[in-house]
Amino acid sequence: MNAPGLMMRTDGAVRILVNSNPAAKNAITPALYDALPAALEQAAQDPAIGAIVLVGDGDFFCAGGDLRQLATRRALAPDERRAKVERLHDLVRALRACPKPVIAAVEGGAAGAGLSLALACDMVVAADDAFFSMAYVKVGLSPDGGATAFLSRCMSRQLLTELCLLGERVPAARLYALGAVNRLAAPGQALAEALALAARVAAGPVNANGRIKVLCENAGAASLDEQLDLEAALMVQSQGDDEAQEGIAAFFDKRAPAFAALRGAAAAGRPQE
Prior knowledge:
By secondary structure, the chain is an alpha/beta fold. It has helices at residues 30-45, 67-70, 78-97, 113-120, 147-152, 157-166, 172-178, 190-202, 206-219, 224-239, 242-253, 259-268, and strands spanning 6-11, 14-19, 51-56, 102-106, 109-111, 123-127, 131-133, 169-171, 183-185. 37% of the residues are buried. The mean pLDDT is 92.
């Protein structure tokens, strides 16, 4: 499936989604609002896919919203403006709701809503010469897309305020030191590094991976008792899966678990043994 604004290809058990608008540094196009959630859903339903990589077309991840479109928003009624913002927020929700891990591969930069899309992914791999920017203030806007929520989990309120009020470019190395970036790659190698990381994730137990994603999503806001209840519920589900049977058997057999074979059986429509 290739849609305007989005290209898709597959590398083994990894689905690669390419935000394609290189003439505008991959600024978000109207087509992406429908295409990206649909592509995430398709990957989620494909038993052969274990992980997803989101990347920009060429040497830039995403420059955020298209300022030419944003310039027309003043003429809209507030509820119409809100509806436009919610389309971006639906992209963020789709990335968070996807049951399969999503890894952002960032070359060049991620600015404004582009930063929000990168941070909405489960992990971020960035070229060490890439930058991140809460650039909204530079054009008289306040942030959207959840970037303030995501960044608040890894930095102080004071630092977050500085990033938002100044809108300066932040080197990838600084966000790596803060924990918002998982891996730094040589320039031009972010996608290769992200694919290697995604392949490792995809080789694991897909159902357990999805449950781990849910636990990590909820851990920051849940109370201890709420998190314990969620852990218990998901552990009960995991213990009933073929994945756990295979993983435990492999441990006692002193071999690597064949989780990929379980995915292959599901993709072929065969009963899992």
